[in-house]
Amino acid sequence: MAVKTELKLKTEPFVLNIGPVHPSTHGVFRMRATLDGEVLIDLEPVFGYLHRGIEKLAEGRTYTQVIPLTDRLDYLASMSNNLAYVMAVEKLAGITVPERAEYLRVIMAELQRIASHLIAVGAFLNDCGAFMTPILYMIREREKILDLLEMVSGQRLTYNYMRVGGVSQDIPGEFLPALRKFVQRMPSYIDEYDQLLAENEILLARSKGVGILPKDMAINASASGPVLRASGVKWDIRKADPYSVYDRFQFDIPTGSVGDCYDRYRVRVQEMRQSVRIIKQVMEGLPEGEVKAEVAHFLRLPVGETYAHIESPRGELGFYLVSDNSIAPYRLHIRAPSLINLTALRDMTLGWKVADVIIIFGSIDINMGEVDR
Amino acid sequence: MQSRFFGLGIAKGMALTLKHLFRRPITTQYPEERLSTSRRIRGNELIWNQVKCTGCATCAKSCPQGAIEIVTLRGEENKYIVEKFGVDSGYCIFCGLCVEACPYDALYLSYDYELARYRRRELVKDKEALLASPSKRVSGYYQPEIEQTLPRQTLLLDREKEERE
Hints:
The complex is a heterodimer of chains A (373) and B (165). Chain A is α+β, with helices and mostly antiparallel strands and 373 residues long.
């Protein structure tokens, strides 16, 4: 008679370093993952590899010279960074921006949101294993947006377009017809993504119910942007604390229900549709006039401090500015949404397998230029 | 969103990719084929107009990188003579703030791109190297009159087939 013996295997936790240079880490980011078999039992994010000291560099530059620095924070959404920074300076200096400049700013910020979400969704699907096909469809549309932004600013990535008191130059004559063409076509491109992906069984199996971030935990972690909205919280700075001229336009805040990776993906796709809707309204109401208020070349701000925040593609982007009446900021602090969304990573990934950790991380959509600044 | 039959979603996606298999490519073979860039492109090094320049050094003060070097002498009738004017293109971040700041329109950005050089020292440009010449085209950045004369930017939107409207 055979004796049944129970095989007792002793397992030891295994530490796996994912990154700092790894295709799934979206930059130079390291995850120290402690594994039990294939299941994650602990995760420690290690960052700082891309630290350039932008906050300190800003203290040695005039208020205008800081604008090119903000381009290099979140390099996928330079226009949004420009906007948040100049809003902080304008708030402290008490400068009113011409109407046309405000409208142009909204156009640029929304175009930038679409471009950034395209990369976010494409990179997320890349992490899911849909290697290169979806991201190339999305890069094609992003290229069209970059063409438009290049037309107004002269550069494809670091636009340096916003100025204190307005924008640097008025749009060229061929911009609005091209933008109209883009806005007409963009919904059909988004339909194309939906046809390609929304019902794809592999994507559903990989992302539905994976990496759930509950509502209360998302709020406690101070998450913002699509990560927070996917958890079912209707919080968008454009509605909650309207800045620029956002209170004049009609748009919805798409929210998720569960807070899993699939919801975060859907929220981003729906936000692109809303951005197209906003741009359409802005184009209709675009007034004529000046695009830049008269501002001294070496601006001196009154002594004081201020905080201005916008809804960047990744969440609440805020600039905290302290002035001591010199030509340079006394202190500039940046509330980077990527960094704060990243703090929820450990809670989201615990108990999941290594392959899921990669897509959970991809679904947060971080940008290392902003995390490390 | 969940389809009734497993695999229907994948089949739909495949149908889309199949449709794209039969359209013309939108890529171009770069060094041989060139598309027109933006008229406001901030390319290559600066172009300097010696006649218009008064030596006020506003460009050097506005540069966030400190890449512009300017040394002036006091000349006749309270005018400045620009003795030294140089740009280290290796430090330049092509933000265009110097062109914006110039009160006399004496500084332009270049319409050409491709700045790669074999030696670091070739990036440091002195007064003679920065002067305008027929081989250098001036960008329309902050120069609305020049902007109108440059070729129209090629857009991917225009190159794509007009089937979607």
